[in-house]
Each structure stands twice: as structure tokens, then as C-alpha cells.
């Protein structure tokens, strides 16, 4: 039944959801972009119509466009955006967390933008922080694009090949294997995010 359902989902819808969720998260709204990307990459390993290449492209585009939109918001509203975010999402944008992220940006500059793509908090704060701290957009865009492509492409490839291997070794239980792997990976991602959040 699950296999039939997966084959009914239009691949274009998968790509749009991945790009949209990753893009909105990159703008500064805390959404589970990484979890959605992992789920889509697993789907690509089981669904002939969903291409892992296009999943990676959609996530990369969402990351680059979303971070650029976040940069524009930071340029327009400056520090006020963090005050608003702290009120709306106090768990993600406490003064302590924003302060630590800002210290990383002051110390590492464009490298913080690149490697920040792999860290949940910095992935959300990257664009607004870079703009607020006066980083030149060209420098930011280069680091943002490189980080977005490395994160989206690397995550998609790793999860896709894990899903392929799981399906190969558990072919007789393919739909069960997909459910188990999907739940395990999503649970691991959520658990890792929760463990990082207090820090």
C-alpha cells in the first residue's frame, strides 16, 4: 500500500515541497528543512520517478534563495528582526543563542556562512546576521551558494545511497524497510536537533 502511494506522489510536488521548506527555513523561520530533505532523498531511493539529483537541486535552490531573502530582511530591518524573532520563537532565538551565533560570524565571516549551513541554528540565522553585521552581499552569496550546494548535495547523496542499500538487502520486505529507515532517520534528525537546541 505504501509502495503504491509513493508511486502516486507527483515528483514535481516533492521537489516543490523540499525547495519551499528549505527556503523558508533559510529565511529565518524555524522549519524542519533537514528532515524534509532526508525524507525526500529516501523517497528518491524507492520511487523511480523522484530523482535524487532534482531533490538536491531543489534543496540547493531553496537554501540559496532563502538565505538571500534572509539577507534582504536583515538589510531592511537590522537588529529589530531578532527582537521580533525572539518574541515569536523564543526557543530558537534567545539572546544567548543569537549572541553566540553573532560571535561566530564576527570571528569567521564567510566561513561561518559556509559551515553554518550544516548547523541548525546558523542555518536559520545566516542571512539576517550576515546583513546586520555588514557582510558584502557578493561575499555572502558565494559562501551561501557553496554551503547550500555542499549541504543539500551531500545530504541527498548520503541518504539516497543508504536507502538504496537498505532496499537491496531487505528487498523481500521493501515497504517495511522503507518505513523503518525513514522513521529511524527522521527520529535521529529530530533527536539531534533537540539535543543541540539547549546549547
Describe this structure in words.
The protein is mainly α. It has one domain (2-196). 82% of the residues lie in helices and 0% in strands. It has ten helices and no strands. The chain has helices at residues 2-8, 11-27, 33-46, 52-77, 80-88, 95-108, 110-116, 120-132, 137-169, 174-196. The longest helix has 33 residues, at 137-169. The N and C termini lie far apart (41 Å). Keywords: Cell membrane, Membrane, Transmembrane, Transmembrane helix. InterPro entries: DedA_domain, VTT_dom. Pfam families: VTT_dom. Belongs to the DedA family.
The biggest beta sheet, please? none
The parts where pLDDT drops under 50 for at least 5 residues are none
In total, the number of domains comes to 1
Report the helical percentage: over 70%
Number of E-state strands: 0
Helix count equals 10
Euclidean distance between termini CA atoms: 41 Å
List SSEs in N-to-C order. Answer: HHHHHHHHHH
Give the mean pLDDT: 79
Shape: globular
Q: Give the amount of beta strand, in percent.
A: under 5%
Estimated structural class: mainly alpha
Provide the gyration radius in Å.
18 Å
Amino acid at each position: 500500500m505504501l509502495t503504491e502511494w509513493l508511486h502516486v506522489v507527483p515528483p514535481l510536488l516533492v521537489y516543490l515541497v523540499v525547495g519551499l521548506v528549505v527556503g523558508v527555513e533559510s529565511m529565518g523561520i524555524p522549519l524542519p528543512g533537514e528532515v524534509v530533505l532526508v525524507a525526500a532523498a529516501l523517497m528518491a531511493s524507492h520511487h523511480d520517478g523522484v530523482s535524487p539529483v532534482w531533490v538536491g537541486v531543489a534543496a540547493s535552490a531553496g537554501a540559496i534563495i532563502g538565505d538571500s531573502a534572509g539577507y534582504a530582511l536583515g538589510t531592511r530591518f537590522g537588529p529589530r528582526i531578532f527582537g521580533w524573532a525572539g518574541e515569536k520563537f523564543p526557543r530558537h532565538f534567545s539572546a544567548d543563542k543569537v549572541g553566540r551565533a553573532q560571535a561566530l560570524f564576527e570571528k569567521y565571516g564567510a566561513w561561518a556562512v559556509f559551515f553554518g549551513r550544516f548547523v541548525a541554528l546558523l542555518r536559520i540565522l545566516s542571512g539576517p546576521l550576515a546583513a546586520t553585521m555588514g557582510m558584502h552581499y557578493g561575499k555572502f552569496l558565494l559562501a551561501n551558494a557553496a554551503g547550500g550546494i555542499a549541504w543539500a548535495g551531500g545530504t541527498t547523496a548520503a541518504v539516497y545511497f543508504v536507502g538504496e542499500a537498505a532496499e537491496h538487502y531487505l528487498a523481500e520486505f521493501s515497504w517495511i524497510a522503507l518505513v523503518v529507515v525513514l522513521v529511524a532517520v527522521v527520529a535521529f534528525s529530530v533527536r539531534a536537533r533537540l539535543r543541540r537546541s539547549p546549547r
